Amino acid sequence: MESDVDATMLACLAFSCPNMQSLEISMADSAVNRMTGDELTRFISEKKSLTVLKVDRCSGLGFLNINSTSLSTLWLSDLSSITKYVINCPNLSELSLIFSQQDNDSTDLISMMDSLGRTCLNLRKLHISSIHLCNEAVFALGSANLRGLCMLSLLLGKKITDAAVASIVRSFTSLELLDLSGSCITDNGLGMISKAFPDTLTRLLLAMCPNITSCGVQVAAVQLPLLQLMDCGKSLCANVQPEAPRSYFGDLNGGIRFCSKLQVTRKQQPTYQKLIIKHANLKKLSLWGCSAIDALYVNCPELSDLNLNSCINLNPERLLLQCPSLKDVHVTGCRDMLIGAIRNQVLNEFAAAEPRMPCKRLADGSKRVQVPQFMPEQQFEDEKWCGESRRSQCAVHI
């Protein structure tokens, strides 16, 4: 929308489209969504055939009171301080609620999660993004009767730990997608995920999870044979900061202790990690911003997309890519030597040193002889005859 969204516009939409089935409102930078909770409630109640509703910039709603027997997909973004929460939609299968990243957001996510099991029994896809997500909210979701859930995305929950993972694996047995990006789960939580969903999980997203290591990622790759997408972006990071004259360190109990004043400022040495990914079905692997990785070995015959953006400490001499199906490698922010090594591995492998003539055996089968190129179709057939069909080149995105 280039113009503001308000009650007048909703009334016009309701009048001009009496049999509306789908509505998506995305806002231009200069536009403002003035829709209130009352106006959204009235609009949905009047649209008896509405099945899909996606609305951007819903900061002014104040509350949610949505009752619909037709609605199957509901996306609301930029929510803030929802004082009342009712979504009574028995046929809702997909719900996405994105909250603004404000510290003063007073939404009670625990009560919200708890109510889903009573009012949205057929929910299959759930996406919640909030910096106030915590273990207790996940526990409430686990106690809800959402046994059919197959896609669960809980983003930016820094208070989500392995305890929440334990609740997830107990409550949901058939997850195909799990996204806990921005959480504080560890390798133990990753191990629980790997053991719980070996027969269902195809997409695992753990970006910006600072407490997982390359060891946990490797174990997950081994124990999740159906995995097609894995995102560990910005999780395996080498945080190198100079020591100040007065430094502090957190201990296991969450306390803070101070060290004595240092006369000489020295640089802490990061701990680098090596990562080995060997997987038969993985198609997309994202390691963007993983500055802790200095050695990488990827053996994935089906991998088509590899993201290594800002892997600034990856050693070109400790890189090995054995991925014959690669189509795109992303290397923005990488060192020139690493980019050159990647080019050598993914491009030169596909490029022929010189044009080769197709060949056939003599009638008596004694030896092969070159055949002149007459028609492209003939060349293609002859190359198949010789078992030398070529593969397409890979694109390196800088």
TrEMBL record:
InterPro entries: F-box_LRR-repeat, LRR_dom_sf. GO terms for cellular component: cytoplasm. It comes from the Eukaryota. This is F-box/LRR-repeat protein 17. It comes from Triticum urartu (Red wild einkorn).
